[in-house]
Each structure stands twice: as C-alpha cells, then as structure tokens.
Amino acid sequence: MKKPLRVHVITEDDPLYVRCFFEVFLRECPRDQIELAGMTISRAFHEPIFKTARRIHRFYGTVDFLRLAARFAAAKIRNHSIGRLAVEAGVPLIETNSVNAPAFVERLGSASIDLIVSVAAPEVFKASLLRVARLGCINIHSGRLPKYRGMMPTFWQLRHGEREAVVTIHEMAEKLDAGGVISTRAFALRERDVLDRVIRETKREGAREMIDVLRRTSETGALPKATPLDMGQASYFRFPDPENVRAFRALGHKLL
Description:
By secondary structure, the chain is of the alpha/beta class. About 40% of the residues lie in helices and about 20% in strands.
C-alpha cells in the first residue's frame, strides 16, 4: 500500500475566518492518503496586538470594529481556536517563534515532510524553509494571481467590481505570490455583497480545493503541473486604507 503524503501546515491564529478553512479541511481530509504530520500556528500579522487592533480599527471603523471585537472575544472564551480543532483531529502542534528559525527548519527536515502547506501564514518563507520539504511549499490565496497579489484579495476583488473571487493554490517562491498556479476555484460574488460572507465561504471552498490538490499529489507522488505567472500582468495590493473602504461601501458592499 502506498504511503500517505506527509504534510505540515503553517497558519495563523485566527478564530473567526481562517478557522472556517480548518473546520472543513480537518473534517474532510482523507487520512488514508494525506497524513497531517504537524501544524504550526503563528500569531496573526506577526506583530504586537495593539498594532493589529489599530490596523483593524482603521479598516472597519468604530462600530464594525466593536462588533468584530465582540465576536473575537466570544470565540476566545469558547476556545473556538484552530489549535483546538487540530488537537481534536489528532494533529500534532509544533510551536516556534519564527517558521524561518534554523531549529524549526531543521526539525521539519528530520521529519521527512513531503509538502508544506501555507494557509494565511503571517511570515514570508525564506529559502531554507521553501526547500526543506521534498515537494516544496504551496499556498492558498483568495484572489486571482498575479492580478490580486498581496493582502486582503477578497476585499480588492469586491472593490474592483469583479463578478467572482478566484481561490488560487500556487507554488511558493521567495518573491511573494509569485509561484506557478496549480489550481483555481471560482466563487460567485453578488452585486451588493458582504465581505464577511465572502471571506468565510472562500475559506471553505478553498479547503476543498486544497484537499483535491493534496489527494492528486498523493496519488501521483508529485504536485500537479503548475502554470507560471506572467509577472508583467502583476499587481500588488496592501491593506486597504479608509479611502478605499469608503469606495467599497459606496458600491453597496458591507464589511460585516
């Protein structure tokens, strides 16, 4: 019998949105084909919490910020964490202050990992981490590449009037969001939509697309063939500023 694909997942500690991905992924992942050898959960944005709070407040505004903060507090009180989902699914948690730390990279190297999967990982992966697994690293991105490289692709797709959000699974390279595209899945957007809905549902759809990619990789022993990006068509988006939030709302969209 063929050995299952050994996968290590690197993600961020987000009990509201990224957790939606793992609710589906950990429940539906076929363990006879895919062995989840470990998971590393880093602090969101990899920055002090006050800086994150200031960034989120600037984006949402006071009313929506307080609504989101209440949701976040309730999730924390109920321990609706990704870590809890992982433990309940029997996935070992591997802690580190930085996924680029030599000791962490060495640990993965000694664990015979076939593939590293990034799901909203808050650090840029350095060359040593990108090379440590047999098949390298893949990432899931909630936007079409290379047009929607960067942060908050679901927001920017709604902001620019796209009819669909495109969830992309791609190879990881040293340059951010620049590796070849392995697989995509389209998600229909409404004329007047809610960012909260789009983020949650694209996370769930992305989990199913990731499972499909991992299943195919397990069956063949190699990643599906990737399509190189035309970086001449690339754009890069940063965290939205208040001006773009106002334009987003003017289109009839809501954040929450």
